[in-house]
C-alpha cells in the first residue's frame, strides 16, 4: 500500500479530480495549503517587487494498493501540467509507504480497507 500526496495548482483541482475519476480512482482527500518551491509569486507595490511568502496550492492525498500507483501518478501528471508541457509551479508528487490502513466502520485492515 502507498500514500500518494500531490501538491498542485488550485486552478487544476477540477481537472485532476475528473481525470482521477475517469481512471476509476474515486477515493481522495483534498486540503487547501500554502507554500512555495521554485515558483514565487511576485507583485509590484509602489514601484518595488514584493515577494509574498506563500502561494495557495491544493494537496491531494490518495491511499492506493500497489497496482494503482502508476495509474494514479500518471493521471495526476497528465492532468496537472500547465499547457500540457508543464511550467514552474505545477507541483510535486510524493509516494510513501503506507504501513497500515483500517476502515473504522468494519474494522477491515490492509488493502481491503482501501
Task: Summarize the structure in words.
The protein is of the alpha+beta class and 114 residues long. The chain has a single domain (2-112), classed as 2-Layer Sandwich (Alpha-Beta Plaits). The protein is 19% helix and 33% strand. It contains two helices and six strands. The protein has helices at 13-22, 69-80; strands spanning 2-9, 29-35, 43-45, 48-50, 55-64, 91-97. Strands 2-5-1-6 form a four-stranded antiparallel sheet, covered by helices on one side. The chain has a two-stranded antiparallel ribbon with strand order 3-4. Helix 1 runs antiparallel to helix 2. The longest helix has 12 residues, at 69-80. The radius of gyration is 17 Å and the shape is elongated. The N and C termini lie close together (9 Å).
